[in-house]
Amino acid sequence: MSELPRCPQCGSQYTYMDGSLYICPECAHEWSIDGEAETADMGQVVKDANGNVLQDGDSVVVIKDLRVKGSSSVVKVGTKVKNIRLVEGDHNIDCRIDGIGAMQLKSEFVKKA
């Protein structure tokens, strides 16, 4: 029986095959069997509160009431934000919210719609 490779991210020996992917159960890293680095070329990976990977143009839903700095308005829980743009920095989502305008959000306070 052939030896499965160790996880390139954490070095775990407990990797397993699932279809055309190797999967590490310790750090949840996935990579293709033919050796292509899929996630390494992506650079910045932004995940929502549930761990789903976000991309430009996605729609997200706010999961917590968020106060708008410098204003008395609040972004209510359940507010759907369409067509997000990912940016570098602490607040890594750039968006426009109806009734409030352009603002930046942290990805930890949204979930993919």
Automatic annotation (TrEMBL):
One Pfam family, short name: Zn_Ribbon_YjdM
Membership in a protein family: Belongs to the YjdM family.
Taxonomic source organism: Thiohalobacter thiocyanaticus
PANTHER family linked: PROTEIN YJDM (PTHR30305:SF3), PROTEIN YJDM-RELATED (PTHR30305)
Protein name: Alkylphosphonate utilization protein
All residue ranges annotated as the Protein YjdM C-terminal domain in the record: 46-113
Signal peptide range in chain numbering: none
Database matches in SUPFAM superfamilies: Prokaryotic SH3-related domain (SSF82057), Zinc beta-ribbon (SSF57783)
Domain Protein YjdM N-terminal: 3-32
NCBIfam families, alphabetized: phnA
